[in-house]
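User
New here, help please:
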Amino acid sequence: MSQHLPLAGRIAVVTGASSGIGEATARKLAAQGAAVALIARRKDRLDSLAEGIRAAGGRALALAVDARDRSAVAGAARSIAAELGAVDLVINNAGVMLPSGVEEHRIADFEQMIEVNLTGAMRIVDAFVDPLVAAAKRGGPSDLINISSIAAHGVFPTFAVYCATKAAVTHLSRNLRAELGPKHVRVSVIEPGFVNTELQSHMTDEAAKAWIAEARQQITWLTADDLASTIAFTAGLPRHVNLAHVTIMPTQQV
């Protein structure tokens, strides 16, 4: 790939890369010159994505890993360093949305959202913070980009636990920036509104599904490619420029 591409030479990790925002972001980063490590649980989708990136002239490594599994994430970090090089860009994107009323006692769903959206995100930070700091120390750009949601600030019936996990991701990002920014590691949090991905298809709560279906009919939602472009732009800025907090909304969403 041409060295004139904005992300040429970057080594990126993308979690939740098997679909939606993660998949689109991996394609975008690779098209702009980055080598990409693809992390998610669905190996067949990762393999297909990696093949497509390579066919377009990029570099990709597919790793079927559950971000909640500390040892698996640590092993993935070692594999990425050995096969692609030193990571300097992390897109912390894996997430799940399973709304339900608290009186329904769907504890397994609550726990899954906490484990994936928050614990899994922190596993990724723990695994890659050392290479990010090292990359910054070498004088190059270094980015941790966490994907949160406008739900971090919202109040929505049946979405309490989801909103709480996203609020935690946003506040975690602010605090990590205070810690890592002085070391030249850029920490960004991106909070999208409605995005047309498979995230909503996993919901089982009928009231939430009806609300989402109505919203889909009333306004034009963001696409995964819209988020991918925003993420790539954020990572491609000069080293001294940090978009710390980005809210990206469909124009019609109030």
Observations:
- The first helix runs from residue 20 to 31.
